[in-house]
């Protein structure tokens, strides 16, 4: 079974260390900085060349002099290397150089970047600082406009601004000025006893050369970023503790500052030499065969045109098997170099190998091709299982640094049973010393064979090293956007999906890597995002020398693709699917990964993972960045260890993320059992977070609204604010970092404290005399989980509060999950003085987090006419807030509560409100009950009276016609006006009543009519139909009433319908007195029940029975062929009206039975008894 498909970049055992190349070596030697690199980015036009270069020269000279003065003769600048854009033509008049130009192939990561204007910082210099206090920053960036202005005589101002940023970048201090609108570091704060606000940066005097406050002038109480992150320590103290000056280095000098020497370089296409170990260790299994296939795949298919590539092998000696040559797609040079390795390795023991010989041979190979080895890249493939002498490593590092070469180490293979010794840290330090990378490919042998996943991992490691060999080829070198291995063992069809987005080039390559060609089925089916199937039978490319099948996809559709193919691999092998493409230069997204670990296995500090996500030079905000870390090797059963996913944040909470909105995402490595002692591989994936990611816009049309032109203070504090933002096109990038080696320190149990709270704020409510404290919750183990409890203190001394000595606050809330904002209100009765507050978190094991930043507040004294509110427990007298004595006891402050007066008012208000509600409820209930009783009484009266309209009376209609009142259904309102109602006993004669009674008693007493071709049929005796009190009308289903016969029911409620009602013969159910279907002996009958809207307000029950009787009728029992005809006078009624819940507002004529003809010979009913009735 294969694992679930995921669109991520996994290296299947490949591990990389030092993936992000730090800036070159910048050292302070004999009071002069050497190795300072200034890079000019590609977005600076060439027509600015002369102005930018001359301005840069003036700024560097002035900067060196100011640096000398600021450090009291400790430091200045000795040399500067300026890296020009590759597109600049230095032989033109617009770009004339005063020193020779050197071509360098190795990437020169600049300490200072000169670029176009920034959307927030404009042309002002600024520093990206991803790490905490005392750590070197990432880089300094300033605008080319500032350099152009410096060439016009403003170099002193630019040098002073650059010096301020240099102190942040080199020595790890932070801004001591406030920032407008910043939630943590305000631009101004109130000084007690004065009405005006005083700027935070009080120690800075206009025109001063000092970029920071001196120790004597430093105020640790001021709420600025430096005091917050550096615990109030003076900037100068932190500078003196740096590597430049500690332990007596570079003491003050009486000499003068240095004038920097400037040299110009321009990057060129890389020169790459692949140096491969050729010893007996490669004879095992298929290790050597996989090396040959990996080199061929990368050289033939992945290396961009124009790159110089050569191949060297070494054992006890070294030799060149492929001279350094320029790659061209139209020649066979790729095939010749890719197939240059010997078919079989040598039998020289691994212990006799000479790594230094391989490095020296690589230099000779470059020079023999009439190329300069300076800046070249060496990719070293070696097993690394034999310890390399330190002297040999030091010599290789010296030689590489002399030639400015990078060494990318690929340790192949790393055997798992050797444990941590499989990671040769000596070789790893070699790659770090040369600003290269270190990759480990785990051994995946099965008996005398090797798994194909090991070959794919080696190919990925080589591709990664090529991508890092120079910035000029990174955008044209393929990157892996999807990689998935499908295990074999059972013939099956595998399927998966991958995504291509706008940040990628238009073409892509789908590749299938196999151990044996027979493991791959004949068909590979690709489906485009629009659903179009794409058969690859005629477009496949096979390369048996690299064990790969290619499917090139030109002009690939953007979106999610799917694929299907047959997997015939054996149980120990697999099919590996990879999709590669190049970057879209118009939407380039860059992802870089690094950690705070400088030395492998450093146990003195926790590991922090950093990832920078940018589009060009602009940060991508709100991206989703996830780190993936997995232990190397397998768990002993052949199954790889599970992957741990860690989401990184750009939240600016200070620990560990310093600034929000700078595009740098970070988080602590969690202390969980899966990540204890061992070696781990680390990679990071960044996406556009389902469309939530945005990027700043540099609106060149409104540059007058730039931040620094609107405000006269610097940006930014805890957050970088942008005026204009734009959505980022969908993207997905994965970057490998590599090896993280962790060694247990032998201490068992929880040793990780909660992280430091650095966003504590205090808000004063002068009305209630309360203070609201707000902060972001820390974790249990640094920024993971939740802490166990809080401790907080108050005091009038910043120094003692910073030592966590003062009045303790009791009743603090329970901590919540990391990053969630919490708050608490406290009652304060000490007025007209500054009060300081600090907080820290404690986990369940008792590990205490560092003390938070010190928040301060000022509580003004309330007016004298207002009574002083009381606190549940007073903070103490005013004298108690003065400088504390050395006693260790302290008072406690409770969280805000209510006074007795407040509680009494609240209880009284609530009680009064409840009483009012109760009165209203009782009144409503009485009114409702009274109305209900009246209604019931009225209903009873209506039920006990029967309204009979006599046919003996006449009514004259408005048109003058005389009609019988029998034939008119009166309006209820009109009838209600008649007080003299006539009962049935007074309106009918005794004989009439007797006949009506006998008719109801015998429903079959009518004559039996015989007709031809039909069974005998009973008819009703009397033309009066049956009567119901619910509007349910009774009709024989087969009987056709006469057209002119109309006799209403004797007892009928007065309905008021506006239109005649039509019954549906099929929908009339049979009638019974209980409301159930009833089958008459005269044929199938139905009823229909309605609830008319009566003006008198009487409620009519509804009969829900409206189904056709299921019992057979009497006539049908006699003759199965009988089909009763429907009544012709009743048309079928619309079903929508029948099913409507609205009351039917049509006038219902009572159904009338046909008057029967009564022949004497058909009567079979019994003779009715008759009696004279004189009075009923």
Features:
1176 residues, signal, Rossmann fold, alpha+beta, globular, membrane, Calcium-activated chloride channel N-terminal domain-containing protein, Immunoglobulin-like, transmembrane, seven-stranded mixed sheet, 19% helix, 19 helices
| Annotation, overall tally of beta strands | 56
The general outline is: globular
Provide the gyration radius in Å. Answer: 47 Å
Class by alpha and beta content: alpha+beta
| β-sheet strand percentage | 15-25%
Largest sheet: 7 strands, mixed
Helicity level: 10-25%
What integer is the average pLDDT?
Answer: 76
What are the low-pLDDT stretches, counting only 5+ consecutive residues below 50?
1-23, 195-200, 418-422, 701-713, 868-890, 943-986, 1003-1148, 1152-1176
Distance between the termini: 96 Å
Number of helical regions: 19
Strand order of the largest sheet: 1-19-18-17-14-15-16
